[in-house]
Protein: Ferritin
Organism: Rugosibacter aromaticivorans
Amino acid sequence: MDIGINKKDREKISAGLSHLLADSYTLYLMTHNFHWNVTGPMFNTLHLMFMTQYTEQWTALDLIAERIRALGFPAPGTYKEFVRLASIKEVDGQPKALEMVRHLVDAQEAVARTARGLLPLMDKANDQPSIDLITQRLDVHEKTAWMLRSLLEE
Protein backbone atom coordinates (compact mmCIF):
# COMPACT_ATOMS: atom_id res chain seq x y z
CA MET A 1 0.00 0.00 0.00
CA ASP A 2 1.47 3.35 -1.06
CA ILE A 3 -0.83 6.34 -0.52
CA GLY A 4 1.97 8.69 0.52
CA ILE A 5 1.67 8.03 4.26
CA ASN A 6 4.11 5.53 5.73
CA LYS A 7 2.79 2.42 7.47
CA LYS A 8 3.86 3.53 10.95
CA ASP A 9 1.93 6.82 10.65
CA ARG A 10 -1.09 5.07 9.09
CA GLU A 11 -1.08 2.65 12.00
CA LYS A 12 -0.94 5.45 14.61
CA ILE A 13 -3.67 7.41 12.87
CA SER A 14 -5.85 4.29 12.58
CA ALA A 15 -5.35 3.55 16.28
CA GLY A 16 -6.42 7.10 17.12
CA LEU A 17 -9.41 6.87 14.81
CA SER A 18 -10.34 3.58 16.52
CA HIS A 19 -10.54 5.46 19.83
CA LEU A 20 -12.66 8.10 18.12
CA LEU A 21 -14.91 5.40 16.66
CA ALA A 22 -15.34 3.84 20.11
CA ASP A 23 -16.16 7.20 21.70
CA SER A 24 -18.53 8.01 18.86
CA TYR A 25 -20.31 4.67 19.12
CA THR A 26 -20.66 5.05 22.88
CA LEU A 27 -22.11 8.54 22.37
CA TYR A 28 -24.46 7.19 19.67
CA LEU A 29 -25.74 4.45 21.96
CA MET A 30 -26.14 6.84 24.91
CA THR A 31 -28.08 9.32 22.77
CA HIS A 32 -30.34 6.61 21.34
CA ASN A 33 -30.98 5.21 24.83
CA PHE A 34 -31.94 8.67 26.08
CA HIS A 35 -34.19 9.20 23.03
CA TRP A 36 -36.10 6.05 23.94
CA ASN A 37 -36.31 6.76 27.66
CA VAL A 38 -36.63 10.51 28.16
CA THR A 39 -39.71 11.65 30.12
CA GLY A 40 -41.05 14.85 31.60
CA PRO A 41 -42.16 18.30 30.43
CA MET A 42 -39.34 18.53 27.86
CA PHE A 43 -40.16 15.11 26.38
CA ASN A 44 -41.08 16.19 22.86
CA THR A 45 -38.20 18.65 22.50
CA LEU A 46 -35.57 16.24 23.81
CA HIS A 47 -37.01 13.18 22.09
CA LEU A 48 -36.77 14.92 18.70
CA MET A 49 -33.41 16.54 19.45
CA PHE A 50 -31.88 13.25 20.54
CA MET A 51 -33.20 11.55 17.38
CA THR A 52 -31.55 14.19 15.19
CA GLN A 53 -28.30 13.74 17.11
CA TYR A 54 -28.17 9.95 17.06
CA THR A 55 -29.08 9.87 13.37
CA GLU A 56 -26.20 12.21 12.54
CA GLN A 57 -23.90 10.19 14.78
CA TRP A 58 -24.86 6.92 13.06
CA THR A 59 -23.72 8.29 9.70
CA ALA A 60 -20.46 9.52 11.22
CA LEU A 61 -19.63 6.05 12.55
CA ASP A 62 -19.45 4.73 9.01
CA LEU A 63 -17.22 7.58 7.85
CA ILE A 64 -14.76 7.02 10.68
CA ALA A 65 -14.65 3.25 10.18
CA GLU A 66 -14.21 3.65 6.43
CA ARG A 67 -11.28 6.03 6.97
CA ILE A 68 -9.60 3.42 9.19
CA ARG A 69 -10.12 0.85 6.42
CA ALA A 70 -8.79 3.25 3.76
CA LEU A 71 -5.60 3.56 5.82
CA GLY A 72 -5.22 -0.21 5.61
CA PHE A 73 -6.31 -1.41 9.05
CA PRO A 74 -9.37 -3.17 10.45
CA ALA A 75 -11.96 -1.04 12.21
CA PRO A 76 -13.07 -2.15 15.68
CA GLY A 77 -16.65 -3.35 15.62
CA THR A 78 -17.58 -5.13 18.84
CA TYR A 79 -18.92 -3.88 22.14
CA LYS A 80 -15.90 -5.44 23.84
CA GLU A 81 -13.51 -3.41 21.68
CA PHE A 82 -15.54 -0.23 22.07
CA VAL A 83 -15.60 -0.53 25.88
CA ARG A 84 -11.82 -1.05 25.89
CA LEU A 85 -11.12 1.88 23.54
CA ALA A 86 -13.69 4.47 24.65
CA SER A 87 -13.02 7.31 27.08
CA ILE A 88 -16.77 7.70 27.67
CA LYS A 89 -18.35 5.52 30.34
CA GLU A 90 -21.85 4.12 30.09
CA VAL A 91 -24.60 5.70 32.18
CA ASP A 92 -26.27 3.44 34.73
CA GLY A 93 -30.03 3.49 35.16
CA GLN A 94 -32.42 6.00 33.69
CA PRO A 95 -31.48 9.58 34.61
CA LYS A 96 -33.97 12.43 34.59
CA ALA A 97 -34.20 14.54 31.43
CA LEU A 98 -31.78 17.32 32.40
CA GLU A 99 -29.31 14.80 33.77
CA MET A 100 -29.44 13.10 30.36
CA VAL A 101 -28.55 16.45 28.81
CA ARG A 102 -25.60 16.83 31.22
CA HIS A 103 -24.32 13.36 30.33
CA LEU A 104 -24.59 14.16 26.64
CA VAL A 105 -22.72 17.46 27.05
CA ASP A 106 -19.89 15.58 28.76
CA ALA A 107 -19.88 12.88 26.09
CA GLN A 108 -19.95 15.36 23.19
CA GLU A 109 -17.03 17.21 24.74
CA ALA A 110 -15.14 13.93 25.28
CA VAL A 111 -15.51 13.03 21.60
CA ALA A 112 -14.28 16.51 20.65
CA ARG A 113 -11.21 16.09 22.88
CA THR A 114 -10.45 12.69 21.36
CA ALA A 115 -10.79 14.10 17.85
CA ARG A 116 -8.71 17.21 18.58
CA GLY A 117 -5.92 15.08 20.02
CA LEU A 118 -5.48 13.38 16.64
CA LEU A 119 -4.85 16.54 14.63
CA PRO A 120 -1.10 16.93 15.33
CA LEU A 121 -0.35 13.36 14.23
CA MET A 122 -2.48 13.71 11.11
CA ASP A 123 -0.90 17.05 10.27
CA LYS A 124 2.60 15.63 10.72
CA ALA A 125 1.74 12.70 8.41
CA ASN A 126 0.23 15.07 5.82
CA ASP A 127 -3.07 13.15 6.02
CA GLN A 128 -5.57 15.70 4.70
CA PRO A 129 -8.55 13.32 4.35
CA SER A 130 -8.31 12.38 8.04
CA ILE A 131 -7.84 16.04 9.00
CA ASP A 132 -10.94 16.93 6.98
CA LEU A 133 -12.94 14.20 8.72
CA ILE A 134 -11.75 15.33 12.16
CA THR A 135 -12.46 18.99 11.41
CA GLN A 136 -16.02 18.12 10.41
CA ARG A 137 -16.51 15.97 13.52
CA LEU A 138 -15.16 18.73 15.77
CA ASP A 139 -17.61 21.20 14.28
CA VAL A 140 -20.55 18.86 14.94
CA HIS A 141 -19.55 17.87 18.48
CA GLU A 142 -18.67 21.39 19.64
CA LYS A 143 -21.89 22.82 18.21
CA THR A 144 -24.01 20.01 19.68
CA ALA A 145 -22.37 20.43 23.10
CA TRP A 146 -23.13 24.16 22.98
CA MET A 147 -26.79 23.52 22.07
CA LEU A 148 -27.15 20.97 24.86
CA ARG A 149 -25.43 23.28 27.39
CA SER A 150 -27.92 25.99 26.41
CA LEU A 151 -30.74 23.78 27.67
CA LEU A 152 -29.14 23.73 31.11
CA GLU A 153 -29.09 27.51 31.53
CA GLU A 154 -31.85 29.22 33.44
